[in-house]
Amino acid sequence: MISLIEALNFRSLRYIRQPLGPFHILVGPNASGKTTFLDVVAFLRCLVSDGLEAAIYERTRNFQDLTWGRSGRGFELAIEARIPDRVREALLPSDFDTIRYELGLIIDESTREVSIVAERGSLLKVESGKWKVESGKRKAGTGAAHAPQESLVPRECAATTVDCSPERRYANANGLQQEVGRK
Predict the structure, then answer these.
(1) Alpha carbons 56 and 19: distance in angstroms, whole number
(2) β-bridge mates for residue 116, sequence order
(3) How far is Cα 183 from Cα 168, in angstroms, rounded to an integer?
(4) Host H or E run for residue 35
(5) Distance from C-alpha of 35 to C-alpha of 94, rounded to nearest angstrom
(6) Closest CA to 64 of 75, 78, 53, 51
(7) What does the alpha-carbon distance between residue 48 and residue 35 come to, in Å, rounded to a whole number?
(8) pLDDT digits (tens, 9 = 90+) for 23-82
(9) Mind listing the pLDDT tens digit for each residue in 150-183?
(10) Domains and CATH numbers, the chain
(11) In this predicted structure, which of 3-17, 39-53, 129-143 has the lowest mean pLDDT?
């Protein structure tokens, strides 16, 4: 079960950190971010299953349409999910009950290439409403609203680059299964 969705500078979401329970209802006026909130999960699913280029081009041909205010250079997404007990007991030390996936994307203004500038998966221990990361420098949190952060993920490794130049975009418009442009 997804237990937290977090986004920084993604489409209409400047910053959101929303813990989730077994049942939630999204309510709000038109253009308030309900669909964008759900698209965090859909974007990450598409990225993991089909690749970075497909995740972007399924939504837009202009990467900056995916940034807050259409003016930023990138965005960051994070998602946490509870690990089912039967899986946790079979595969992990039993004290880790949550997995967190974080992703940071940025576009190079001069080359129009989109890069994954940070990506991290973490196992978390939940202790009375707080969590601790297996390794790293994360602080415990309660899920309460926080002020916008500088970054959700550390900038330790750049992993993937996709060419988003106009020529490359049109060349891939008919077949996203072609070379993904990873370097």
Answers:
(1) 25
(2) 105, 160
(3) 15
(4) helix 34-50
(5) 35
(6) 75
(7) 20
(8) 888 899 998 899 999 999 999 999 999 999 999 999 999 999 999 999 889 999 999 999
(9) 666 654 433 443 444 433 333 333 333 233 333 3
(10) 2-172 (3.40.50)
(11) 129-143
The distance between the two most distant Cα atoms of the chain, rounded to a whole number of Å, is 52
Query: Among all chains, which residue has been given the structure tokens 């442009």?
Result: 181
Q: Phi/psi of residue 94, each to 5°?
A: -65, -15
**Pairwise pLDDT comparison (91 vs 112), residue with the higher score:** 112
Tokens 């859909």, located at residue: 42
Residue with tokens 């999204």: 26
Residues 183 and 118: their CA atoms lie apart, in Å, by: 15
Identify the band that residue 131 occupies on the pLDDT scale cut at 50, 70 and 90.
very low
Say which residues have a Cβ less than 8 Å from residue 163's Cβ, sequence separation at least 6: 111, 112, 113, 181
Token look-up 């946490």 returns 80
Please give the Cα distance from 112 to 109 (Å, whole number): 5
User: Residue 8 and residue 146: Cα distance in Å, rounded?
Assistant: 12
**To the nearest 10°, the Cα dihedral for 17, 105, 66, 20?**
-20
Q: Who contacts 113 (Cβ-Cβ below 8 Å, separation ≥6)? A: 107, 161, 162, 163, 164, 165, 181
Q: Are 144 and 91 in contact (CB under 8 A)?
A: no
